[in-house]
Amino acid sequence: ILMSKLEELIKELCPNGVEYKKIKDTVGVNRGKRLTKEQLSDEYQFEVYHGSKDTILGHYKEWNAPEKTTIVVNTGGIGGIKYINEKFWCSDGSFWLGSCDEISPKYLYYALSGYEDYFYSKKRVGGVPTIDKSVVEDFEIPVPPRPIQDEIVRILDNFTELTAELTAELTAELTAELTAE
């Protein structure tokens, strides 16, 4: 849904089209660094992302990826895309994307979030299934002017928030109905 909404907004806000650029030519791709379970502790501050966009591996005392960063999971939950607001440790089960002045960090997340199935389809098998760094590096995203990116982010953030509220409301109503029966 977000991908089609993003495409719709780009067509509306950039009627003359936009340039597409490869990730490697803009923000770049960084591979996380392996940690062992023994290095993790609930007493540490920084969340560790490995092979899942939804579940952290644990906590570590240091961070290696800055706040407002998008990750692409390369093993386990292959292709998962997540935007992380706080500094964190990116383990070797994910790539973390860098930043540049030309692309808003949150816009980057929205530009990639509709392509989880695409990244998953590019997995390499033989041993542990994974996607190669080049798959992410060579992926192209639309790059409208920064003020338009900021407007797209504002609209999609509102859309996402309203969708979550509506889903919660519908779930509560359905649960109430089922409990009443």
Question: Outline of this structure?
Answer:
With 181 residues, the protein is of the alpha+beta class. Helix content is 37%, strand content 18%. It is globular and about 50 Å long.
How would you describe what is shown here?
It is a single chain. The protein has 181 residues and is α+β, with helices and mostly antiparallel strands. The chain is 37% helix and 18% strand. It is built from 5 helices and 9 strands, in the order H-E-E-E-E-E-E-E-E-H-H-H-E-H. A hairpin with a 7-residue loop joins strand 5 and strand 6 (81-84). The chain starts with a helix and ends with a helix. The model has no long low-confidence stretch (mean pLDDT 93).
With strands numbered from the N-terminus, the spatial order across the biggest sheet is 2-8-5-6
Task: Give the rounded overall mean pLDDT.
Answer: 93
Beta content = 15-25%
| Helical amount | 25-40%
Backbone structural class: alpha+beta
Terminal-residue CA separation: 33 Å
Give, in order, the helices and strands: HEEEEEEEEHHHEH
User: Segments where pLDDT lies below 50 for 5+ residues?
Assistant: none
Main β-sheet description = 4 strands, antiparallel
Annotation, overall tally of beta strands: 9
Outline, from the CA principal axes?
globular
Rounded radius of gyration (Å)? 18 Å
Q: How many helices does DSSP assign?
A: 5
Please name the defining characteristics of this protein.
181 residues, alpha+beta, 4-stranded antiparallel β-sheet, 3-stranded mixed β-sheet, 5 helices, 9 strands, globular
